[in-house]
Amino acid sequence: MTSIQSxxxxxxxxxxxxxxxxxxxxxxxxxxxxxxxxxLVSPYPVIGSVDAARVRPPAVPYVPRxxxxxxxxxxxxxxxxxxxxxxNAVFLRPVSGGVEWDVEPRWIDGPHV
Length: 113
Fold this sequence. Notes:
9% of the residues lie in helices and 20% in strands. It is mostly beta strands.
């Protein structure tokens, strides 16, 4: 019979709950634990508060029609390749390839030249 079956106190930590990692420090205090030494970096562009105050969506948003069409994401200021639409999200990919990001249709400007 093992110690767990016999009811004896087992000092070995539960591998799923105690992974010897730092506690979560997010504002939500979710109790999650980050993976050791890894930092999640968002593929989305970060816009400073100064830039966000100046950026306005185009008066007439462009509606891409073909997959592969090059457009401009006004919010981030980046050109992107139109990959598709799902609900109220338009998916763009960097022109040189990379991770897709989504943007609201109102932030799409005409073909980037």
